[in-house]
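#onboarding

Welcome to the new folks! Below is a worked example of what a typical request in this channel looks like: someone posts a single protein sequence, and someone else replies with the predicted structure as tokens. Don't worry about understanding the tokens yet, we'll cover that in week two.

Example request:
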Amino acid sequence: QVQLVESGGGLVQAGGSLRVSCVASGRAFSISTYVMGWFRQAPGKEREFVAGISRSGSVIYYADSVKGRFTIAKDNAKNTVSLQMNSLKPEDTAIYYCASSTTVDIGALPSAYRNWGQGTQVTVSA
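Example response:
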């Protein structure tokens, strides 16, 4: 069974930085064979794509709202994917989820992802 566990969320002032991480575990599960994505969901809103990284790590996509501020990275040896978030804004406040997908390409829809973590809260104060 695949398990994704996020950590690193918290409270930060606008303009600050946070780094959230996701550790994957499970029998024979390696993130090197999966597309990995970060999504977020704010209260009353739908879950939205934030960033995704290909199996090899050579292809990365970002939502326009975070481009230039967020950086996704994966460490295959540690089975970990991270999201470095800089220049945070109050509108970045949400629960951030890590997810894995068996698709070849990076998808922006939650339905493309099979396994999900429990989420970690990120709150940005004005």
